[in-house]
Specification:
With 343 residues, the protein is α/β, with parallel strands linked by helices. The protein has a single domain, classed as Aldolase class I (TIM Barrel), CATH 3.20.20. It is built from 13 helices and 12 strands. Strands 4-5-6-7-8-9-10-11 form an 8-stranded parallel beta barrel, surrounded by 6 helices. Strand 4, helix 2 and strand 5 form a beta-alpha-beta unit. Helix 12 crosses helix 13. It binds flavin mononucleotide. The site of flavin mononucleotide (FMN) has 25 residues, from helix 1 and helix 12. Flavin mononucleotide binds next to helix 1 and helix 12.
Amino acid sequence: MLSARKSEHLKICLEKDVSSAATTGLERYRLIHEALPEMALADVDLSTEFLGRRLQAPLLISAMTGGAAEAREINRRLARAAQEFGLAMALGSQRAALETPALMSTYHVRDVAPDILLLANLGAVQLNEGYDAETCRRAVESVRADALVLHLNPLQEALQAEGDTNFCGLAEKIEQLCQSLAVPILVKEVGYGLSLSAAQRLYRAGVWGLDIAGAGGTSWSKVEAYRARTREEAEVAAAFTDWGIPTAEALVTLRAAWPDWPLIASGGIRNGVEVVICLALGANLVGMARPLLQAAAESYEALCSRLRIILRQVRIAMFCTGARTVADLNPTHLAKRDAYGTP
Ligand SMILES: Cc1cc2nc3c(=O)[nH]c(=O)nc-3n(C[C@H](O)[C@H](O)[C@H](O)COP(=O)(O)O)c2cc1C
């Protein structure tokens, strides 16, 4: 059943309009053009460090897939590209493989991506469904990941007829896991953002860093509305198409609260200019999911082309902002558009 759901999610995300009715909030910012950058375009250095690893660019291929036959090739294409471009990559939820070991190979990418920063992925709610530190350790080791990302997805689960909706006591279980797992733990949402109060509890729990996965990109209420078996289920989901904390709003709030806590900005990032705006707002890394899935589903070449376009946009945006390195970017490079969107 889980594997069938993974296939349905992939198919819907590739074929239907599943964009949130909310915007990321990034459109409220623009990078201040610097007509005198005093450097050459080639001087721009996109490299950065995250989780103690050097990346060639501050980009993460966000958690998407695994656990279905067609996911295997997509994961391998994403991983090959991450290796080629020196990016980080997260796998999709590994629950399917933990429950059906025959599906494990759909997550195996280390043979094509021996050097990448690779993140394992599980739903935090599974800690209330029998998963313990040993299960999490197996998830990490089975794919030779460098860290574990737990996703929080209460709305997504609530909209699924078969969803796991007992989110009681999770902060404490995450805290115990942080103490017993040998690799760092990060926590993400799946497209509705992380609030200040959630982040405060996760910080106290000892979580290494957060991935905001805010509103404005892929909307799981839209995905689940397409999967609905009855009109009633679809109508329930329909009220949530603009739900969530926009990516920019969550990023600004959390960065103001923790100047140094590692933060990944994601949720609705669609081009390299938006990547640079997120970096200027304080993100350490920027994640993208569905646009890369669409390219990867087409072909490896289409994925490489998409990444070349995004990285070229990042380079040019940094050049024309006068920022030579990722660390140079800060809020002084940004202006706010007024309420009418005019600069
Ligand atoms: C097909 C698909 C499957 C996903 N599966 C997972 C998952 O298993 N675990 C997870 O943490 N996030 C998952 N996500 C959420 C993404 O990691 C990301 O947070 C979200 O899609 C918002 O990013 P986007 O607007 O760039 O797509 C999935 C997204 C897509 C499109």
